[in-house]
Amino acid sequence: MNQTYLEEFKNPERILLGAGPSSVHPRVLQAMTKPVIGHLDPDFFQVMDEVGEMLRNVFHTNNFMTAPLSSTGTGAMEAACVNILEDGDKVIICRNGYFGDRLSDIARRSGAETIILDAPWGKPIDINALEHELKKHENVKMVGVVHAETSTGVLTPLTEIIELVHSHNALVLVDAVTSLGGHDFRMDDWDIDIAYSASQKCLGSPPGLAPITIGPRAEEVINNRTSDVQSFYFNLKDLETYWSQTRAYHHTSPISMTYALRESLRMMMEEGLENRINRHAKVASALRAGVSAIGLDILSDEEYRLNPLTPVCVPDGIDEADVRRQLLQDYNIEVSGALGELRGKVWRVGLMGESARETNVFAFLSAMESILSKSGYEVAYGASLAAAQRALITFDE
Ligand SMILES: Cc1ncc(COP(=O)(O)O)c(C=O)c1O
């Protein structure tokens, strides 16, 4: 055995243009090198308060219980479901991709009767179909919807869905893992009851924390539960005691990760949320123009396209995985393959957080031109770069 673990890990310098994690700014990495202090140290409480305040800004909410869970996005999915749902409750989960499917699985495991509303992968949720389900099933407690379906690159518009769900006296749960910080997201104005995200996408931190926010209706439902939350770790009432003035120990906070999130949120505040969302829109427009100039299709319909993630269709005769391998090996660029039924048919190109930079769009497009051309696909060299350049200029006009 060659015991490579005895040597220091030599990090490759990747450009992370996949579905997450996104690249992390050196300032954020640097914040993680600060000495660890205790999770009950008053100075750490200040860090927690600042992170809470900045997260409330990012979610556009006054919800007190707005905090990062010690988990990735999936943990926050679990937390939302197990805290709201009890045995025998009815929940509708809107499923138009892989993460809606995961949410439905977690809701079912939480003991709820789980009604699935399907929409084709690549399309948003159909509000008329949701209305039909809400009329068909009485006493639905919650409707879960993925705002930005990272598996398909589709953004489902939320405001009308939320109004409809509330008119049936149900709560609205929103997965904002890929939208928060990359698209407009307004917890209070849109009247969302419970939402969560993840640190590693448009928020610009490494993976490991999952911000969650709980509105007044959801708080009330949680306060009036008749059964215990089956998860100790994700019991939001207990976690709230640690994040509130009580500061009661619940579990040991991931201190260095919280430093990182604080720094990445601070960078968001410096940039301004609107500017940041605009930056995501601008680079996405350049990417789309570039891939279209190469002659590649984009899976999602124009009016429902996600900015942080573009699903690029693999042309006939091209080996999806081989292109990704070449991007990684020869250009240090990571993009993602597709999940579930889209596997092998789509590349998922992410421009999230620190990765959402114009230079990354040009690096990706020129690498794709070379790789595809070597694979026998006819490419007009430079055309995609010119198209991207034009899109950037027209975006500002
Ligand atoms: C929309 C969405 N929800 C949930 C998740 C799960 O998050 P994680 O992988 O951080 O557990 C992801 C991850 O990509 C996602 O894109």
Describe this structure in words.
This protein is an alpha/beta fold and 397 residues long. The protein has 2 domains: 32-269, Type I PLP-dependent aspartate aminotransferase-like (Major domain) (Aspartate Aminotransferase, domain 2, 3-Layer(aba) Sandwich), CATH 3.40.640; 272-396, Alpha-Beta Complex (Aspartate Aminotransferase, domain 1). Helices cover 42% and strands 14% of the residues. It is built from 13 helices and 14 strands. It has helices at residues 26-31, 42-59, 73-84, 98-109, 127-136, 159-167, 216-223, 236-243, 255-271, 273-294, 320-331, 358-374, 383-396, and strands at residues 15-16, 66-69, 90-95, 113-118, 140-146, 148-149, 154-155, 171-175, 194-196, 210-214, 309-313, 333-334, 336-337, 346-350. The strands form 4 sheets. It has a 7-stranded mixed β-sheet with strand order 2-10-9-8-5-3-4, sandwiched between helices. Helix 2 (42-59) crosses helix 9, helix 10 (273-294) runs parallel beside helix 12 and helix 10 (273-294) runs antiparallel to helix 13 (383-396). The longest helix has 22 residues, at 273-294. It is globular. The chain starts with 14 loop residues before the first strand and ends with a helix. The model has no long low-confidence stretch (mean pLDDT 97). It binds pyridoxal-5'-phosphate. Pyridoxal-5'-phosphate binds next to helix 3.
